[in-house]
Amino acid sequence: MSEGLIEVRVASVADVAPKIREFRFTPVAEALPPFSPGAHVVVEMPGAGKTYRNAYSLMSDPFNPENYGIAVRLQDESRGGSVFMHTQVKEGDVLRITPPANLFAPHWAAKKHILLAGGVGITPFMSYLPEMQRRGADYELHYLFRSEQTGAYRDELKKALGERFFSYDSDAGEKCDVRALLAQGAPGTHIYICGPESLIHAVKAEAEAMGVPAGFIHYEEFAAPKPGKPFTVKVASSGQEVAVSADDSMLEALEAAGVEVTNMCRGGVCGQCVTRVLEGTPEHRDDFLSAAEKSRNDCVMPCVSRAVTDSLTLDL
Amino acid sequence: MLRVAPTKLETFRDDFTYSNSREAIERFPFPFPEDEYSYSVNIEPHTLPGAAGSVNEHLFDIDEHYLSEMAERAQVLKENPKRCLAMPHMELACWDFIDRAMTTMAADYPDYFSLQKNGEQWHWQNKLLQLDDTFTFGDSSTLPCPPLEYMGRQVQGDIALLDQRDGDLFLDAGIVTCPADWSLAFDAGMSFKEWHGPVPMAHEMGVFERALKYLTAIPLGRPVRRLNWTLTVNARMDTSPETYPMWGVENRSVTAENVGEKVYLRVELQVLDRMARSNALMFSIRTYLISMNDLVTNKDWARRMHRVMKTLPEPLIEYKGLTHYHPLLVDWLAQYDPAN
Amino acid sequence: MQVEMIPGVKSRPVYTPVTVNPRSQRQIFIAQDQIPAALQSLYDGCEQGEKSLLTVVTTGAAAAGGALSIDDLAQRVASLPQSSSFYLAGSEAFMWDIAKLLTDAGFISDQIAMLAPLSKERRLFCTHCYTLMDHVTHSPHVCSGCGRALLVRDHFSKIHRAYVGVQINAEDPADLPAAAEELS
């Protein structure tokens, strides 16, 4: 995991909403590479006694970024990552990040793009917009937020996007009619959602009920690993036993014990960390394996999933 | 600094004056890791720089055949401009390729190439081809020809740019003038599974799904490589389906007497590299040719070549188009195998 | 990564049994020239959504009795909602031509279902001169562009909506196959 990491300096820290803090990173050595709209990096956060790794969407103009911007929402049920970013990280600090990777790229063949952001889910669209403008693409941004907590960048977005910008402040009682939004979709309209699980599920359910094929709906949700009951992971090749505490993910516990597992998004989406299960029953929490694969219980995604049984033997 | 300096123009057609120097033979990427033939696609990290002087040292390997291969490419494109194509949505990927090629080539071969960036104004010099161009990065109207063709005429090996969408890869752009019998014009736009259709590999068993999962996750700046191989009669770079009527007859020209000079081992160094702005994958296919006469100057290669050819399964002999001369080759190679 | 080998695998579209998507608001059934029984019965059995049964003329004869030209169809689909499904019947080349028209209009492949092709005719792409030929029933087939005898391979392109053809006797031009075989 440490291979190929980029060292960056925290050039600025700014509060952009009551619960959202923006960090701008500049390179320590070589220039930061350009990236593609919707890309993310994983930020390594060396906490006391535990290293956190969270994925954050990049917010700069991806074509030739002078810096990388991320925005971090202080999570109510934080396992430490967002608390670390909000309380420990200061201007001038040096952090390590992965190179950009992309699981949420725009479909450029679309005739129209509808971007649906919920709260801090605005972040990937911050890199979509410059490229959409460069290409002269047809798009709309629908921004759902609670002004008492989120709603970062809404004034500058309104100014920059004009009639393409729609905002819904639920703290002011404003609601987005998802059904009406979907109903206006002509063929070739693709919908992108980034936001809380509830928003993604609501749009998906509405689309399904309306007969809008799933291929038009794209979403990104990095499910931060949620806590669960502690269990033990057995590494088949070495016989090593690794305890997974209630707050750690299986992947984090394995990494802390020096066991390498290929991974990318750390949020149950990309499928890179999928590992064979030799004994025990996993508790699947990912968004990658199909229902059939989950029911076989012969593989697991250690980044977010846990164990039903007291121990899980992995083919590592 | 180049280990192998570019030489005079050689031909890959008609009189076939192509030849390898001692240095080129020594650095030839011999592809067989074992005596027994086994079909496996071992993809490994293409960590740069690779071993000094090897074909893996740099992202784009420039060698003594540079001028000859560029002249051959120009000839193929003159005869058939459709050997290079880029769908409109691939424009950004084409510029990514220009960025990656120019930036690395200027750093890796400063004697031959130089690049100065002044914001979006780029100044590129290719001293081997005597090019000196200034253009606006990202603005195709400032180049003398479309971006993929412009840079593709300056790198050895074929280039394909694969668009990544819906968890799949699509062959949506390329400059392909030295393929091992596949047609860019026909395969254009195909998904990963579709363009591998005729390859005798597993469509079942989730092999393609696993391969796709791996390839779509290749991170920025972490290219991977594999070697592919076939045999070619004569040092012909352009063994395309388009020109098959021209070269097909040569497959019958091999005799027991001329195997050593007629039959070439054709090795493709295939590299997959993530493009930064477009999230496309660059698939570069750098082809190396070595005659059997040159190959057997290395005793280990000669012995192993015999054993691998002898154990080659029938479906692959047919798929690779070796049917007519494979037995002759095995017989000829036997003299270099002490086990016989 | 390891890739194992299984010989004999080809790339050819596979046509599986078609069922109606009950959630679509618009159900569009499209036939080439005449409505085959299979499409008619699928149409008759469709009870959800607003349904239309269209015929598209491809034989060159003037459009009669409500049949559409390809251009008419392109106009018609442009005003359809996103929640539409399409069920196609006709020759293989016809169905893929319509599929291309639909994807160009912004629909995606998940919305397009094809019945088994009504004939064994194929469209052929000559890999030597890039000529496209319709109504190919035998292999080898003499290219109408360059005159070469082409082996028809099971390798299909959705962009060209055609199979690839390569010269069958390039290695020995004197070796002309005695008889062409009927394609399956």
Question: What does this 3D model show about the protein?
Answer:
The complex is a heterotrimer of chains A (316), B (340) and C (184). Chain A has 316 residues and is an alpha/beta fold. Chain A folds into three domains: 6-102, Beta Barrel (Elongation Factor Tu (Ef-tu), domain 3), CATH 2.40.30; 112-220, Rossmann fold; 231-314, Roll (Ubiquitin-like (UB roll)). In chain A, 19% of the residues lie in helices and 32% in strands. Chain A has helices at 81-87, 123-135, 154-161, 178-183, 197-210, 250-256, 291-296; strands spanning 6-17, 20-27, 39-47, 50-57, 68-73, 94-97, 101-102, 112-118, 139-145, 165-169, 189-194, 217-220, 231-235, 241-244, 275-279, 282-283, 299-300, 306-307, 311-314. Chain A starts with 5 loop residues before the first strand and ends with a strand. In chain B, helix 11 (299-310) packs across helix 13 (326-334). Residues 200-205 of chain B have low confidence and may be disordered. Chain B is globular and about 65 Å long. In chain C, strand 3 (84-89), helix 3 and strand 4 form a beta-alpha-beta unit. Chain C is built from three helices and eleven strands; from the N terminus they run βαβαβαββββββββ. Chain C has two domains: 26-114, 3-Layer(aba) Sandwich (Rossmann fold); 122-182. Chain C has 184 residues and is α/β, with parallel strands linked by helices. The chains are: A alpha/beta (316), B alpha+beta (340), C alpha/beta (184). At the A-C interface, helix 5 of A face loops of C.
What are the salient characteristics of this protein?
A: 316 residues, seven-stranded antiparallel sheet, five-stranded parallel sheet, 7 helices, 19 strands, 19% helix, 32% strand, B: 340 residues, 10 strands, globular
Give me the secondary-structure category of chain A: alpha/beta
The overall average pLDDT of chain B, rounded, is 92
Strand residue percentage of chain B: 15-25%
Q: Helix share of residues of chain A?
A: 10-25%
User: How are helices and strands ordered from N to C of chain B?
Assistant: HEHEHEEEHEEHHHEHHEEHHHH
Q: At the fourth CATH level, what is the homologous superfamily of the largest domain in chain A?
A: Nucleotide-binding domain of ferredoxin-NADP reductase (FNR) module
Low-confidence stretches of chain A: none
Query: SSE order of chain A in H/E notation?
Result: EEEEEHEEEHEHEHEHEEEHEEHEEE
What fraction, in percent, of the residue positions of chain B are helical?
Answer: 25-40%
Assembly state (oligomeric): heterotrimer
Morphology call of chain A: globular
Specify the biggest β-sheet of chain A.
7 strands, antiparallel
Number of helices in the DSSP assignment of chain A: 7
- Summed up, the helix count of chain B is 13
* CATH architecture name of the largest domain in chain A: 3-Layer(aba) Sandwich
Topology-level CATH name of the largest domain in chain A: Rossmann fold
